[in-house]
Amino acid sequence: MMLAATAITLLVVMAMAIARAIAGPTVFDRVLAVNLFGTKTVLLIAVLGFLFGRPEFLDIALVYALMNFISVIALLRYFEHVEKLEQGGSSQ
Amino acid sequence: MSDVIPFISTALLCFGCFFIFTGALGVLRFPDTLSRMHAAGVTETLATTALLVGLMLLAGWSLVLLKLCMILLFLLFTSPTASYALAKATWRHQQKSEK
Hints:
The structure holds two protein chains of two kinds. By secondary structure, chain A is mainly α.
């Protein structure tokens, strides 16, 4: 019972994160919302594994956590690099 | 003793749900990028820990417990790191745009 309530709460929270990612004024708001979405996806996969009685889902959750972290760090480095490139281009 | 553990697990799941919802509400409602980051970063580790410890109490002694421990450890390392990198990038962007 509580597992189903947890899964529904996580779905609501993911919908709120998607709303922030669509509405976010700056690109950093969008990255923050996508990071939140990824973390909640890991938790949702773990809870659904318990809910359906299939603990193999935890492997997928582990891989998803790794992918989420790497993608956020890569996106942030890309945006910093793009700003540096634009500055270099404008000064020349 | 066996009656106490499902009760603690349910309580921890309730706790984690409340804090996750509060953090998402803060991300949705706060006016500024850095304050949104604060709302997400403050609640994220606590709520994640509460939910995963609740699931661990449901799992019992098995391989599932080890996998949940690995997920919890990984999230506890990476979530503050990603939050810090995001705050640093936002701060640098704001400093540059003020000049």
